[in-house]
Amino acid sequence: MATVSRVVNNNPNVKPQTRKKVYEAIERLGYRPNAVARGLASKKTTTVGVVIPDISNAIFAEVARGIEDIANMYHYNIILCNADKRKEKEIRVVNTLLEKQVDGLLFMGGTVTDEHLQAFKTANVPIVLCATTDEHGVMPSVDIDHEAAAYDAVSALIAQGHRTIGMISGTLQDPANGYARFQGYKRALEAAGIAYDESLVRVGNYRYESGVEAMKFFLERDKHPTAVFSATDEMGIGAVHCIQDFGLKVPDDISVISVDNTRMASMVRPQLSSVAQPMYDIGAVSMRLLTKLMKKEHVEHARVTLPHELITRQSVASLT
Questions:
Q1: Are strands 309-311 and 273-276 parallel, antiparallel or unpaired?
Q2: How many helices (H) and strands (E) does the chain have?
Q3: 146-277 adopts what CATH topology?
Q4: Cβ atoms of 39 and 100 closer than 8 Å
Q5: Alpha carbon of residue 54 to chain centroid
């Protein structure tokens, strides 16, 4: 057993002839090392749990790519779990992953509630929030400044002469994609001296259909907005298609801008102007931060804010 262990773990203190015999036996028997037993002995499983809120969303797929690449670099495996943006499922998945004895956890859920924080407190492994933050700023996290991203998007519309600007928001209970982006929208209006109009804000659920419904509401008003800011690309594309279904043109009749800059933003026609989140980098930096915490290395900044960038395409027209 000791000789097999040395061969499997690449210990140099094994004669070449003996190593050859062990490898022949391994191949003949179809032997694989028992990772569970190895984890019990070392108290490390070299496995990281990743909680994703919606596995069908292209944004989180890009984050997962960044996580996977860095995990491979540092010889960690990942267990990916979809939580369907449901709080009770998120907490259940977190507890299940901790029971699996993962060495660390990356949480990509939506709103981080007190119940989430309580579950995190009971963990004896590091946890990093990825593409989200907690309200009180106590957890290590990697994200962008969502309020600033929304501010830049709406300011770009204002710079083109738009004064009546609608917003298709995410849920305001979501501190990042919802509330922070809503606050950025309001701050941009205030900075330009434009009065906030509650009737120009519709709350969606981040999905294409809710973008269609919100835009339909705006178009059925006596006077529709000249521009719309969408909190996500998917809702923004829904808005574009709704405008076209009403026989209007983007951006000639109504301009549209959004946040995320997923591949869909450049696939729709006209191509959608959007604030780019560095999704791959968010995943990669989150995983690197987690590896440092798992190895108890010094971490200078446990809360990392990555830069965003406004990508201008064909969906915004100037009124000046």
A1: antiparallel
A2: 12, 12
A3: Rossmann fold (3.40.50)
A4: no
A5: 10
DSSP 194-257: PPP-GGGEEE--SSHHHHHHHHHHHHTSSS--SEEEESSHHHHHHHHHHHHHTT--TTTT-EEE
Q: What is the pLDDT of residue 130?
A: 93
The pLDDT value given to residue 154? 98
So what's the pLDDT on residue 294? 95
The pLDDT value given to residue 33: 65
Q: Which CATH number fits domain 45-144+278-308: 3.40.50.720, 3.90.550.10, 3.40.50.2300, 2.102.10.10?
A: 3.40.50.2300
Q: Can you read off the two tokens belonging to residue 44?
A: 């490390």
User: For position 156, what pLDDT does the model report?
Assistant: 97
Per-residue pLDDT at 36: 55
HEC string of 49-93 equals: EEEECCCCCHHHHHHHHHHHHHHHHCCCEEEEEECCCCHHHHHHH
Q: Comparing C-alpha atoms, which of 48, 93, 36 is closest to residue 293?
A: 48
DSSP assigned state of 177: I
Strand order in the sheet with 127-130: 77-82, 47-52, 104-107, 127-130, 141-144, 303-306
Tokens of 98: 């901790």
- For residue 310, is it left (φ>0), alpha (ψ between -120 and 50) or beta? beta
What is this structure's pTM?
A: 0.83
Structure tokens of 318?
């100037």
pLDDT score, position 35: 56
Low-confidence stretches of the chain (pLDDT < 50) are 40, 42
Please check whether the domain covering 2-33 is classified as CATH 1.10.260.40.
Answer: yes
Strands 303-306 and 255-260: unpaired
**In the chain, where the domains are located:** 2-33, 45-144+278-308, 146-277
Query: What pLDDT is stored for residue 15 in this prediction?
Result: 86
Q: Which amino acid is at 291?
A: T
Q: What are the Cα distances from residue 152, in Å, to 156, 159, 192, 206?
A: 6, 10, 12, 20
